[in-house]
Write a structure and sequence with these properties.
Blueprint: E1 2-9, H1 16-28, E2 34-39, E3 42-45, E4 48-51, E5 55-57, E6 60-65, E7 70-73, E8 83-93, H2 101-104, E9 111-120, H3 137-140, E10 148-151, E11 160-162, E12 168-170, E13 176-184, H4 187-205, H5 215-239, H6 248-277, H7 282-321, E14 326-327, E15 330-331
Antiparallel strand pairs: 1-8, 1-10, 2-3, 2-7, 3-4, 5-9, 6-8, 7-8, 9-13, 11-13, 12-13, 14-15
Length: 332
Amino acid sequence: VQFRVTLFWSPSAEEETTKAVLEVMRSHWKGSSKLQVTDRSHGLIGSVVVNVPPLALINAQSFSEVTPPELHLVEPRPGRVLLRWNCLYQAKLIEPAIANEQGIYPFPYDSHELSIDMGVRFGPLHDVPLRPIQPEDNATRSMLTTAAGVVEEAVVLTEFLISPDMPIVVDESNVLHANIKIWRKHNYIEVNVLQLNALLQLMGFCTFAFPAEELSDRMSMAVGVLFATVGLRQLVDGLMPKLEFMSLAQNQLNASIYVIFAVVVESAFASMVHRIFGSDHSDAATTVAHIIDGITCATVLSTLAVSYIEVYRCRAAHLQMRPVREESGRDT
């Protein structure tokens, strides 16, 4: 996930840093509000070191800066120093709730709730309290004395739609939680896997167009469809974490593999019946082969119908809940 963080804070007027910064502004302020960032805890204005509350991503397995962080003085004026930290991060979040059966089973029609948890855990300003930025802060920024942080709307998950509502709360441990509701973009898997799988199963049923005695023709078509279905299953497996349960798409492809396998076995059995009894009772053998074909066809059709009803149910629920508009490169 990629997201942009903006942090405002104003050191108190008694701090030595504030006095030094104001002195630099009076002596050789050149009008540029951008400061030099030395590390995540410090910046420079002239030769004066400015303390920065370094944000830590609490629930990240790994995270990095996509673009260099920017540190600015905001509307500098005598008697007040307001600083702003702005940076675009990319992180791999630790979200154990996603890997449960309820969360990921409907894949590719799954939705999840993510939390970006941030706090200041080290550095000179490690005890600066965070809070969500408020609309009135735009008018009263000159009175900010504690940090105000916000996860801006530049939250990017290329495979998901993102809710425009992003509640931000701060707990008693001074950890800021930005809660994000996301819905998977299902079109790729739906068109290239589920719909293609349905067409392959229709091809598989064309196996019954060949007489039972033409086993080689039946086998050629059924085995070709079987290998194609296994390939689709491998594609889905590559997109899924290794879990102890199967997702909706995996179950659907498993059912298709079992169906084609049943068609292969049934074709061999019908051919064997026709070969053993066909020489003396050709009409009876053909009738028995047709009955076996009919029973097999009805069984596999009902199996596929039940599995696709489940797909349709999950799809309908997914479309009902997810947002439908896209703005400014972000799904909302």
